[in-house]
Input
Amino acid sequence: MKKTSIVLLVLIAAAIVVLISYTGDLTTYETIASAKEKPGKFVNLIAKINNDYPMEYDAVKNPNYLSFVAVDSLGNSIKVVYHNNKPTDMEKSERLVLKGKVQDDHFECKDILMKCPSKYKDAPNNQTVSKTL
Output
């Protein structure tokens, strides 16, 4: 076998190993109901804050504890516990991507990504004014 063939086979094998390692990082978004069926497994939830329940955060007492109730698009809700600083303007966010796992009766969140409200939505008071020459 030629040396170039051996090098080519090694490169192909390395590429396959790299591709397989990246497929483990591919995650899908779960609903709260499906996440509850997979306790202890790392999942991504898309939800929003349920304002019917109070948010627990005291920056003076414990700045690394945030607790709130999240609700998904199907209406399922779960208590979320986040052991880090509260993200700025979290309440204004349209949706949240919560990364973590379900433990017992709550979602233990490791990371929160905020989806901002669309800046392209038309405001009802924003009307164009035509100029006349």
About this structure: Residues 126-133 have pLDDT under 50 and may be disordered. Strands lie at 29-30, 43-49, 56-58, 62-71, 77-82, 95-103, 106-115.
